[in-house]
Design goal:
151 residues; Alpha-D-Glucose-1,6-Bisphosphate, Chain A, domain 4; 7-stranded antiparallel beta sheet; 4 helices; 30% helix; globular
Length: 151
């Protein structure tokens, strides 16, 4: 398993960031490779990712949640991806949200697949950092702020 830790400061309050992130169906809005995210129950979610000519799917279950602070999850069942992770939300001195994303994961095909992916310039750890930056950009745009006001 690989270990990845990334943080990003988002110029939004904790409630907005936590609520958006807790609604996993929002993830395709900032992760273009995700083609489907569907809640199976309040704690279980099915994820589908486009990976070139194929798709990869996995199910996750929330194993711990502290509202406005932490969401912890792990994959369950016969999933293509194995992972266990957490997202923690903290308010900084400026009232912004510091989101820390920690995940241990393995990808289908193991070391061989991971090497091929890296040779194609798509290191999974770099993609995690990029997607956190996309989340930050999405949540800080006027378009998102307009949607929040209109809800």
């Amino acid at each position: 398993m690989r270990h990845s830790v990334h943080s990003v400061t988002i110029k939004r309050n904790i409630k907005d960031v936590f609520v958006f992130c807790r609604q996993f169906k929002n993830f395709p809005k900032f992760i273009p490779e995700l083609t489907n995210v569907r809640g199976v129950s309040t704690l279980k979610t099915l994820w589908v990712l486009e990976a070139g000519l194929t798709s990869i799917d996995w199910k996750t279950k929330i194993v711990q949640e502290i509202p406005l602070e932490t969401i912890c999850w792990k994959t369950i069942g016969n999933s293509d991806i194995e992972q266990i992770g957490s997202a923690t939300f903290k308010k900084n001195t400026h009232g912004n949200t510091v989101l820390k994303f920690t995940v241990d994961y393995s990808i289908p095909g193991g070391v061989f697949t991971e090497t091929v992916i890296r040779l194609l310039g798509k290191d999974p750890d770099d993609l995690i950092a990029l997607n956190l930056q996309r989340l930050k950009n999405y949540l800080e745009t006027k378009q998102f702020q307009k949607k929040v006001v209109n809800l």
